[in-house]
Design a protein that fits this description.
Elements (H helix, E strand, L loop, with lengths): L4 E2 L9 E6 L2 E7 L3 H9 L2 H7 L6 E4 L9 E7 L13 H20 L2 E3 L7 E4 L2 E4 L5 E3 L9 H18 L4 H6 L6 H7 L8 H19 L11 H16 L14 H4 L4 H15 L6 E5 L5 H8 L3 E6 L2 H14 L4 E5 L19 H4 L4 E4 L3 H8 L3 H11 L2 E6 L5 H7 L11 H9 L2 E8 L6 E7 L1
Helix pairs in contact: 3-4, 3-8, 4-7, 6-7, 15-17
């Protein structure tokens, strides 16, 4: 029997599981799911969804890699470059994932099938767009039954979207707490009074909340009424209409959403910096890049233009939203925008703290870019230079990093609001601490500024 490792997030579904063997990720289909799997394939549903770019493609293998007595067949899915989670997505990414789920559900109904679950963990962003990755989520449609995953869809997709829409604030940390979705009794308390003017909120939040409370009071003895296919299609249509109608352009600004318009030194600085980074990219063989503090992706697009696979991160929701919308508009396949607070990155969570891996365990690249970032971490977050150097050593085989000294006007602005206790924040100490872990391959000052760009290689 070939050695394999079962994926720690794949343990809940008796239909099968995901496992890794010899560096490849497989999905086992169990005998329990054999009939549904054959219906998925033989009905033409699989081919239609794959052709439309809605479902990840796979190759089928007759080899029982795991040696399991429950085995039916083995699938080798098309690899996804980077695994991300909904608490790292901007509003529009969650919105598109929701619409994809509803579209897949509607297509499944046309082929006599239905989705038995509706979680955003069934979606990944692949080649610039969302794609459904759980081949075992399809079940045979029973016209007498309502959609069993309706509540899950609301908790995982609709409720978070409503919350951010009405509260005008980021909800990613809430999603990392409620990884199975925000319960209806919680959302009913959090939404503001003005939300009650929305028919959608009444139907999918407050009516569901009332029904849930009534069911509990009845101790679960109420009978399920027949639920026609037309009713289900009407629900899908209404949910699609609600999610599509959320405004595309948010009216509120965030800390960094206007960075390149208001807060950079000058357009000349940006162009000179771009030229240096272009030269540095010409000296590296890196094919994957993690752009930390990417803002709206100005330099992420530079890396992508050099055919690198880019994970562009920022803690600012609106910045990532702007970048994601541009990635969609321009059909850029090699940039994945994600929300990430470097001082508090996504941890390992879920069952046994293994169900959902930590960000840096999932995202490992050849090169890390940290442009105009160090001073925000040291002065803004109190992360000292030696601690920061050790952090980059853990994630960056190669590093393009910018040092902004105290003399810089932006640093001076930061120091106006706090005492200057950063006695070793200078270029000499920066080079000393980073040289513990890295060799400095290149060092170039940005003309017209006191800022310096470095390309470093881990020792």
């Amino acid at each position: 029997m070939t050695k394999y490792t079962r994926h720690p997030s794949s343990f809940k579904d008796p239909s099968g599981f995901v496992f890794e063997s010899e560096g490849k990720l497989y999905r086992q289909v169990n005998q329990y799911y054999a009939a549904q799997y054959r219906q998925l394939i033989d009905s033409g549903l699989y081919n239609q969804l794959v052709t439309q770019g809605k479902l990840i493609a796979h190759e089928e293998s007759a080899e029982n890699v795991t040696g399991s007595a429950h085995w039916y067949t083995t699938l080798l899915p098309e690899p996804v470059q980077t695994i991300s989670y909904p608490y790292e997505w901007c509003f529009e990414q969650l919105q598109d994932a929701a619409l994809l789920t509803l579209s897949v559900l509607k297509k499944a109904l046309e082929h006599g099938m239905i989705l038995k679950d509706a979680t955003p963990y069934n979606i990944q962003f692949h080649k610039g767009r969302p794609i459904f990755i759980d081949t075992l989520s399809f079940d045979t449609y029973d016209p007498k039954q309502p959609w069993i995953a309706y509540r899950q869809f609301c908790q995982c997709f609709l409720f978070p979207l409503y919350l951010e829409h009405y509260l005008k604030t980021d909800i990613q940390k809430i999603l990392s707490t409620y990884i199975d979705g925000i319960p209806v009794d919680i959302i009913a308390k959090l939404l503001p009074l003005k939300s009650r003017l929305s028919l959608g909120v009444w139907l999918h939040v407050y009516l569901q909340h009332t029904a849930t409370t009534s069911t509990r009071a009845a101790n679960g003895n109420n009978k399920t009424n027949a639920f026609s296919k037309k009713k289900l299609l009407d629900v899908i249509s209404h949910l699609t209409s609600i999610i599509t109608s959320f405004p595309a352009n948010k009216t509120y600004k965030t800390t960094w959403s206007n960075y390149y318009e208001d807060t950079i030194l000058s357009k000349e600085y940006l162009k000179r910096k771009e030229a240096i980074i272009n030269d540095m990219c010409g000296q590296t063989n890196a094919r994957t890049v993690l752009d930390l503090g990417a803002n709206d992706g100005y330099f992420s697009k530079l890396f992508a233009g050099r055919q690198m696979q880019v994970i562009a991160t920022d803690s600012d929701n609106r910045c990532i939203s702007n970048l994601y919308q541009q990635v969609k508009k321009d059909k850029i396949e090699n940039i994945l925008p994600l929300i990430l607070d470097i001082a508090n990155p996504s941890p390992a969570i879920g069952f046994n703290n293994q169900e959902r891996a930590a960000f840096h365990d999932r995202v490992q690249t050849d090169l890390v870019a940290a442009l105009a970032l160090v001073h925000h971490l040291v002065i803004g977050k109190n992360i000292s230079l030696p601690v920061l150097a050790a952090y980059f050593n853990g994630i960056a085989p190669e590093l393009i990093i910018e040092f902004v000294p105290k003399e810089d006007e932006k640093v001076q602005q930061m120091l106006k609001t706090r005492p200057d206790t950063f006695i070793d924040y200078d270029q000499e100490h920066f080079e000393h601490y980073f040289s513990t872990y890295f060799n400095i391959a290149e060092k170039k000052g940005i003309p017209g500024t006191t800022r310096t760009l470095y390309r470093m290689k881990r020792k």
